[in-house]
Amino acid sequence: MASSQLKMTAKDRAYEFTKGRVLDSTFAGGDLITEGEVAEALGMSRTPVREAFLRLEGEGLLRLYPKRGALVVPVSVGEVEAVMETRMLVERFALDKVLAAGPAPAIAARLDVAIGAQELRAGEGDADGFVAFDREFHTTFVTAAGNPIVTGLYDSLRDRQQRMVITSLLIDTKRIESILVEHRALTEAIRTGELERAQSVLTAHLRGTLDLLRPG
């Protein structure tokens, strides 16, 4: 076991374990999980698991039912709309700032690295890894805009973004291919300084995920 894991308290381990499985949809929205199954999986008592569940309820990921377990709260339509609207505002702002001076080949080179990592994870069937580098791709140009308050706001969406992108991949496995195509197109627009093209690709890209997550 890694040294960082050894230093974690039992309740922290239970929290990280449970949260990770909610975010990657191993524990899917609508599932009922119990303290006992998590405690057994981690080889610990139920007390730290109960504390972890309470923390996750506070974050809106679980809803507790005494003596029954915890319901994994499904991603709501309202949450999807709010998160994607915020992402659209932040990422369009970032592109405006990044491309204000024209072509940005240095940023594009960093995006190429993230795309390469995504392609590798896709080939290995590693959805979690693919989503992690999806976030790195977008965070790269958001951070490059140089506004720490905007970057902090974007970081606050991390868990919700991860859960939503994972859910979209479960709905449509071909979404991985379209994400890669859209990421390459956005990177080329950034490389050549085509702001209008970059904004158009970004808008279509985010709407692709939003459309998959909308009911029907």
Task: Write the CATH homologous superfamily of the largest domain.
Answer: GntR ligand-binding domain-like
Number of helical segments with 4 or more residues = 11
Instruction: List unreliable stretches of 5+ residues.
Output: 1-5
- State the end-to-end CA separation: 44 Å
- Residue-averaged pLDDT: 92
Shape: elongated
Helix content: over 70%
Which fold name is given in CATH as the topology of the largest domain? Answer: Four Helix Bundle (Hemerythrin (Met), subunit A)
Biggest sheet statistics = 3 strands, antiparallel
Number of strands: 3
Indicate the CATH class of the largest domain: Mainly Alpha
Structural class by SSE content: mainly alpha
Strand order of the largest sheet: 1-3-2
Tell me the strand percentage band: under 5%
The radius of gyration is: 19 Å
Domains counted in the coordinates: how many?
Answer: 2
CATH architecture of the largest domain: Up-down Bundle
Order of SSEs: HHEHHEEHHHHHHH
Task: Describe this structure in a few short sentences.
With 216 residues, this protein is mostly helical. Helices cover 74% and strands 5% of the residues.
Kindly list the characteristics that best describe this protein.
2 domains; Arc Repressor Mutant, subunit A; mainly alpha; 3-stranded antiparallel beta sheet; 74% helix; Four Helix Bundle (Hemerythrin (Met), subunit A); elongated; single chain
